[in-house]
Amino acid sequence: MVREEDALVIAARDVAVPVAPAGPADGCTEDLPRLMALPGLIGTRVLFGRRQEIFGADEEARSIYRVISGAVRDVTVLTDGRRQVSAFHLAGDVFGLTAGPRHSHSAEAVVETVAMVYPRRPIEDAARRDARLACTLWLAALRQLEQGQDHVLLLGRRSAVERVAAFLSEIEQRSVGSGWFVLPMTRRDIADYLGLTIETVSRAVTRLEAEGALLRAGAKRIRLRHAPLRHLMGD
Amino acid sequence: MVREEDALVIAARDVAVPVAPAGPADGCTEDLPRLMALPGLIGTRVLFGRRQEIFGADEEARSIYRVISGAVRDVTVLTDGRRQVSAFHLAGDVFGLTAGPRHSHSAEAVVETVAMVYPRRPIEDAARRDARLACTLWLAALRQLEQGQDHVLLLGRRSAVERVAAFLSEIEQRSVGSGWFVLPMTRRDIADYLGLTIETVSRAVTRLEAEGALLRAGAKRIRLRHAPLRHLMGD
DNA sequence: CGGTGTCTTGAACACAGTCAATCGGAGTGG
DNA sequence: CCACTCCGATTGACTGTGTTCAAGACACCG
């Protein structure tokens, strides 16, 4: 089994893998807002109207964005009209990061939204010189990566009711206050985020209400009851 | 609509957003292997047996990995046994990156696998000093982020046959040669990656074969016929 | 107070899941 | 070399969750 080319390989079961005595390991600054205010990184506050496109798919990625207020959706549309929302960005979130020269999806304001817009080139130039900034951008990307993995788990292995329950929990946590909160997006956005139809989302919300897992005031004003909600979330 | 606190905000439709004249924009070095060979970053070649766990969920993230040969799966298991594979890593891929101190999922060798293992702390220390390394790690994370978004689109808005067709295309592209290639993973892994059951994966492959979109030699040895395959992929 | 867009509800259907039996291929031992 | 075993893959019949198509309720705004 051990061929010559593997001669220097250590079998994982035979030896303890050499490791650093890891501590909290968050050496990078988490304070992206302040870093982005560094000299030379001049951002612009921009107001986007409801449903306004912020950038389009295949468009050159010239800017990086941070939400001040409002909500933004990342959208991919297939040629036959099927639509997928891959992420929502709320106040404080950074979006528009991409490895390549072009965006792979579009971003649209869900409601009237104010965002800081930073030109990409100067940011990347600065990141190439300032390791702290680069490290911070790395963390921002990793955090989005982990959100994406949660999303994959949601879409791959959860029922409709579980998806809607998890979605509402997520939005509640990312909204400011506790108690009542407002869904900025329509049922269509939610459905396209959860890989469902608007009818199924509607039925799931109705069912959650019937089971006592939430209270409603209109379609978008919601208050969760966490104890019964957890019961319906599976894990 | 424009309140006082928005006074300094520029409406996106009124002015051209100031942008840098963006070029190819890939200032960061893409050559992660060579960067990881920098002085001070001492990796270890480690051999993992088939199905061996490389790291577990909730385990401290002490290392970063790069696949030399073989294949690795990222796995999340819910308490009720439902299983989701969030990614496969093939030769050349970096994995084990995480923002927090702990892994959110486990990683397992799909087949006998050799990987380079780099201790995390020294890498992050170096990244905090060397902006090029930080920038490169940033790109690695962004690339995984984009793969995650493709995965979300797959799970959210594609039929079973489309998912399997897209999956086979993806593996073919990431494998070395052209023509025939080998699936290192079982039907269970594929099903858990695509959010399907093994029976549905099996039926989809059978159907793709019947429609002339692929040839089979055993369950894992495959050759794709791209023209008919595209037809069945929707977009 | 009407009009329009969004949301909810209902009934029929379809796609993928479940349960169960069979097939196939790699490895093992006689 | 063949028979046996085991695990994974395939196929079939039936079920169920979520979709589709269609109608109606609600709320927001002129």
TrEMBL record, chains A, B:
This is HTH crp-type domain-containing protein. CDD domains: CAP_ED, HTH_CRP. It holds the Pfam family HTH_Crp_2. Residues 158-228 form the HTH crp-type domain. Keywords: DNA-binding, Transcription, Transcription regulation. PROSITE patterns: HTH_CRP_1, HTH_CRP_2. It comes from the Bacteria. It comes from Methylobacterium isbiliense.
